[in-house]
Amino acid sequence: MIINKGTLVLGALIGAGIGVLLAPEKGKVTRDILKKEGKTIKDQITQDFKEVKEDVYKATESGKGKFKKDVKGFASKASYKTEQAITFLEKQLAILKEKNKTLQQSS
């Protein structure tokens, strides 16, 4: 998309340059034509940059939404795995407590 717009602008500049070289009009007329073409090219470049800016903004916003969704998914998964780890540690702690009780009784 950006490459196509750049190609159009380059083509317009080349066309304006060739037009100046081959222009049969007087200098003032040619300068007026160049001013109009220059303004048109400037307006087109400005519009192209606005579109690119909007495209980048949309991509960024889309990326933010996906990132937030991924973070929520990761947080949920991490919480689930943390719960599993705590349960495992509680079971291991219960086993150690039982072993410790038997050692306390035999002393």
Element pattern in H and E: HH
Q: Compute the CA-based radius of gyration.
A: 35 Å
The percent range for strand residues is under 5%
Distinct helical segment count? 2
Uncertain parts: none
The count of DSSP E runs of length 2 or more, i.e. the number of strands, is 0
Main β-sheet description: none
Which geometry do the CA atoms define? rod-shaped
Task: Determine the mean pLDDT.
Answer: 76
Give the N-to-C terminal Cα separation.
82 Å
What structural class is derived from the secondary structure elements?
A: mainly alpha
Quick take:
The chain is mostly helical and 107 residues long.
Provide structural commentary:
The chain is mainly α and 107 residues long. The chain is 94% helix and 0% strand. It has two helices and no strands. The protein has helices spanning 2-22, 27-106. Helix 1 (2-22) packs antiparallel against helix 2 (27-106). The radius of gyration is 35 Å and the shape is rod-shaped. The relative contact order is 0.06. The model has no long low-confidence stretch (mean pLDDT 76).
Top keywords for this entry?
107 residues, 2 helices, 94% helix, rod-shaped
Any chance you could write out the topology, listing elements then pairs?
Layout: H1 2-22, H2 27-106
